[in-house]
Amino acid sequence: MGHSVRIEIRHRLSAFELDVRLETSRETLALVGPSGAGKSSLLRVVAGLLRPNSGRVEVCGRVLLDTANGIDVPANERRVGLVFQDGALFPHMSVLGNVAFGLRARGMSKADAEASARDALERLDAGGLAAARPPKLSGGERRRVALARAVVTDPEILLLDEPLTSLDTVTKGQVASDLARRVDELRIPCLLVSHDFEDVLGLATSVAVMERGRIVQQGVIDDLVRAPASPFVAAFAGVNFFQGTARHRGGITEILGREPATFVSTDVAEGPVGVVIHPWDVVLTTSRPSGSAQNLLEGPIERVVPVGNRARVVVASRPAVVAEVTRESLDRMGLAPGVNVVATWKATGTRLVPVAGS
Amino acid sequence: MRTGDRLMALGTGVATAVIVGFIGFPLLAIFLKVPVGTLFAQLHSRVAIDALEVSLRTSSIALGLIVVIGMPVAYRVGTRPFRGSAALTTLIELPLVLPPAVAGIALFAAFGRFGLLGGPLRALGIEIPFTQTAVVMALAFVSMPFFVRQAIAGFASLDPQLIGASRTLGAGEARTFLRVGVPLARASLTAGAILSFARALGEFGATIMFAGSLQGSTQTLPLAVYGQFSSGNVDTALAIAALLVAVSVGLFAGGRVLLRARAGENGALWAIPSGSRSVTA
């Protein structure tokens, strides 16, 4: 109870109404949805930068906003760590000045604030940047400094707006693992927002999919792929996700999964990775294909879930995998629960995404 | 077509020459009409020294008041416009289009001896017209919009995320204004201050109506130019005019250098937000 977050918002945006009810405990919840779904507005409401038409926000037992009872704690008293998409670092201060800013605002002496800021930067391996000017930093460095600046003030909730967007793949992996490690150490709830579902797979424990101001489905990642609530969720968030360890050799990457399964991918990676396979890349057959399919899982069909004019077929292989097939092939091949099938996909269909190294 | 282009180029060249000559020649004439030695000698006259002192003091005080009062208002209007902020902006900008003589008589009607507040002020022992206070008020009235306009434009072009970041990091409104808003808008604020100061230095109409032209007390440089000119001391008038030209050019050049140096610090080009005046133009 002490670490719960309860959010209720109704707010008229230009094209639609933001209408969200959200509850989460001490964990990382990812809000995903296309650009303009209202995700950033939601973060701004929680941070106190946007006052909704009506709503209630409670973090760790503290009511930050309750329009019905006239409560609206000012942004500077909310103890919310908000990390903006591009960092929003103050360009007229050094990196150290940026990180010390929040501590100075809380009345800490300059020397103490700078010492704590230096410490916060060190923890994110950014100590060497202390004297640098923000406009000179790279995208990855900016995120790291922005994170240090947000967490150094000891917030009660962390809000991350598109933390991995527009970073190159390598930087993305580093930032993702720093982020996950730091969030884990903090032991506070974290809300992160992304328009890219694959970006959040390694960071979040549960996911809420937003469409036009509403949460259309919330659950753990498995739920979203096995039983998407709508074609929108299926198209946006329904992907197979496994974790494993990658080894790159001879132009191909081999991933040893947690369950005794090996996948191959044309993506280049080394070490802990997330494996993403889109259900529409998975081909189902009733017998082993003669060609040398590079990825193969076998098992009985557990469930068939219709999604629009297609269907999600959950195969109880090890690990379980979900394929998306047309209704027509469902009928033609006689796919029904209990039928043994072989699921195959190409090495190009195995996408590797960064995960937090544990 | 070729002939057309050539004619166009020729026409533009001639037009440019006309503009340069039309503005440059009279300015140059101030310095060439009498020998330079005479100009310097006249600058040491009591009238010129008194006027310089009055002008610098009153313009500086007016600028100080404008900055202290105008900046918080501009910040509020620029970053979080409210109902009525458009009307407020219009009111602040009104002196830009108002004839200075109208500003002068308006101040007189409000604060003059027989003005609306004349009686109450006198009862408090305060007499404003024809004092240096009146000069400061006239200058502030007329030059305020030059600063406030630039300041609003500067604050309005701030990245709202930076303001938001400051607030979520625990900084209150005042700290956000002083530590984030003002430093980030400094280019616009400096440009506005320079324009405002230059306008105050050149103020004539409102000052002469509300404050008169008493040497050593309310006679500013432009009033001294007119006073000396109308009493036949053309040489002294020219010397003071030359001083004003030098100060104006110095202000603009200095402002340019200052802004460039500061802008270089954060890697940005010196850009005055669109919709506002540029001092380089």
Provide an overview of this structure:
The complex is a heterodimer of chains A (358) and B (281). Chain A is of the alpha+beta class. Chain A has two domains: 5-237, P-loop containing nucleotide triphosphate hydrolases (Rossmann fold); 240-354, RNA polymerase II/Efflux pump adaptor protein, barrel-sandwich hybrid domain (OB fold (Dihydrolipoamide Acetyltransferase, E2P)). Chain A contains nine helices and 21 strands. In chain A, the strands form four sheets. Chain A has a six-stranded mixed beta sheet, with helices on both faces. Chain A is globular, with a radius of gyration of 22 Å. Chain A starts with a strand and ends with a strand. In chain B, helix 4 packs across helix 7 (132-156) and helix 7 (132-156) runs antiparallel to helix 10. The longest helix of chain B is centred in the first third of the chain and has 34 residues, at 46-79. With 281 residues, chain B is mainly α. Chain B has one domain (45-265): Orthogonal Bundle (MetI-like fold), CATH 1.10.3720.10. Chain B has helices spanning 2-32, 36-43, 46-79, 85-97, 100-111, 118-123, 132-156, 160-168, 173-184, 186-202, 205-210, 221-230, 234-265. Chain B is globular and about 65 Å long. The chains are: A alpha+beta (358), B mainly alpha (281). At the A-B interface, strand 7 and helix 2 of A face helix 8 and helix 9 of B.
Determine Rg of chain A (CA atoms, Å): 22 Å
Tally of structural domains of chain B: 1
Assembly type of the chains comes to heterodimer
Largest interface: A-B, 29 and 21 residues
Which structural class do you get from the secondary structure elements of chain A? alpha+beta
Number of H/I helices of chain B:
13
Tally of DSSP helical segments of chain A? 9
